[in-house]
Amino acid sequence: MGTIQKFEDIDAWQKARVLTREIYAVTGDGAFAKDFGLRDQIRRAAVSVMSNIAEGFDRGGVREFIQFLFIAKGSAAEVQAQLYVALDAGYIKPEQFKGLYDLAGDTGRLIGGFIRYLKSREQAGGKR
Length: 128
Hints:
mainly alpha, de novo design (two linked rop proteins), Four helix bundle protein, 23S_rRNA_IVS_sf, 23S_rRNA-intervening_sequence
């Protein structure tokens, strides 16, 4: 893994950006757009994934960065849970649900892998 110079270099952040873009697109149409509570909550959760990766990166310390990554991972799971609400309310079709659910899951897995990498580097006394 090459040296990460800025948060935009992080694969998990890039995937989170795609997730956020897709969530904004699906929540901007039809009945979903009119359910302000759910629409705003799922959007905030998606944005939280990106934001926590960026904020944690800029904190400087590996341990603090890992804490922010755990928050980001939790936000990805929150998106998945809210997608069930959207599906059950008829705001999204099953194929949309699956695509977005899988994208959020992939994002969470990338974050989890990055956490494991950072922990191993920290134990070895290395830098990110």
